[in-house]
Specification:
This protein is an alpha/beta fold. The protein folds into 2 domains: 68 residues, Winged helix-like DNA-binding domain superfamily/Winged helix DNA-binding domain (Arc Repressor Mutant, subunit A, Orthogonal Bundle), CATH 1.10.10.10; 190 residues, Rossmann fold (3-Layer(aba) Sandwich), CATH 3.40.50.2020.
C-alpha cells in the first residue's frame, strides 16, 4: 500500500472518531507495516492537519499511548466561525421581543453546532474532563457535538424530573430569561462522584441556569472545569458566574430600528 493511501486512511479513521486514542499497533495491523513506517505516516497527517487549520493529531506516550485527533479550531478558524454566527444572528426577523432572538434553527443546525463545538473542544481538551453537561433543550446539540469531539459522554439536566431517570437531585433557581423561579434536576446515575465536568449552554443572560447546574453537580461531588456558552448577553453586566467563555456577545436588540448588536468574543483564548 502506498503512503498516500495509508495517510488517507489514517485521516479517515481518526476523523471518524475524534478524541479516541488509537495505538500505533492498530495501524500496523491494518497496513501490515512496521511501527517506524506508521510513525512517519502519522507525521505527514499531523503536518497536513495543522497546516490547513483542521485540528491536531496529538501523540500520547506510554504503554497505552498512541494518537488522538482533536478537530478544534485555531484562532483564524474561530474568528471565521464567530463571524458566521454573528451574520446569522444579525437578522431583524429573529426578534422575539424582550431582547430575545430566535436561535433554534442555528443551534439545531449540525453545521453550526459542529463548528461551534470545535472551538469549545480546543478550549477544554486539556481539562481532564469526564463528561459534558447541559440543560435541556437548545443547549443539547452544542453540548453533544462538543462531547463527540472530546470523546466524552453527554449529561442532560432536566427542567422536571422523569421516572426514567431514576433517583434525582433537584434545586430551584432564578432564571433571568424567564424572570421567575424554575426547577432543574439531574439523575444520581448520570455522573460518578469525583468526576470533572464541562458545562455547555447555547445562551446565557445572567448565568442563573449555569450557576444552578454547578450547584447540582456539586451535590454529586462533581467539579466544573470549564464553561462554554454560544451566545452571552451583555446585560445584565453583573453575572452570577465567572470564568465562562462565550463565542459571541449579544448587545442591544432594538425592535423599533431592527438593530441587533452582536460581536465576536475576541478574548476567548485568553488565559487558557
Amino acid at each position: 500500500m502506498k503512503r498516500s493511501e495509508r495517510t488517507a486512511l489514517i485521516s479517515k479513521i481518526v476523523s471518524d472518531a475524534p478524541g479516541k486514542v488509537f495505538g500505533l499497533s492498530y495501524f500496523c495491523d491494518i497496513f501490515g507495516t512496521a511501527r517506524s513506517t506508521v510513525s512517519e505516516d502519522i507525521s505527514v497527517v499531523r503536518r497536513s492537519l495543522e497546516t490547513h487549520g483542521h485540528g491536531k493529531l496529538i501523540t500520547i506516550s506510554g504503554p497505552g499511548g498512541g494518537v488522538r485527533y482533536l478537530p478544534f479550531a485555531d484562532e483564524k478558524a474561530t474568528l471565521d466561525i464567530q463571524n458566521r454566527l454573528c451574520n446569522a444572528l444579525n437578522d431583524k426577523n429573529r426578534m422575539l421581543g424582550g431582547g430575545f432572538l430566535y436561535t433554534s434553527d442555528i443551534m439545531f443546525n449540525p453545521s453550526f453546532s459542529t463548528d461551534m463545538a470545535r472551538v469549545f473542544a480546543g478550549l477544554f481538551f486539556n481539562t481532564d474532563a469526564n463528561c459534558v453537561v447541559t440543560i435541556e433543550t437548545k443547549g443539547i446539540p452544542l453540548a453533544l457535538m462538543t462531547a463527540r469531539l472530546l470523546n466524552l459522554p453527554t449529561v442532560v439536566v432536566r427542567r422536571e424530573p422523569r421516572i426514567s431517570e431514576g433517583p434525582t437531585i433537584s434545586i430551584n433557581y432564578f432564571s433571568a430569561a424567564a424572570e421567575k423561579m424554575q426547577k432543574m434536576s439531574i439523575s444520581k446515575k448520570a455522573v460518578k462522584p469525583g468526576s470533572r465536568a464541562i458545562i455547555i449552554d447555547d445562551f446565557m443572560r445572567a448565568g442563573g441556569s449555569i450557576k444552578g447546574i454547578g450547584e447540582l453537580l456539586s451535590e454529586l461531588d462533581v467539579t466544573v472545569v470549564g464553561i462554554g456558552v454560544g451566545i452571552a448577553s451583555i446585560t445584565p453586566k453583573t453575572k452570577k458566574i465567572s470564568g465562562y467563555r462565550p463565542l459571541v456577545y449579544l448587545g442591544d436588540v432594538d425592535e423599533s430600528t431592527g438593530l441587533i448588536e452582536v460581536t465576536p468574543n475576541f478574548q476567548i483564548f485568553e488565559n487558557i
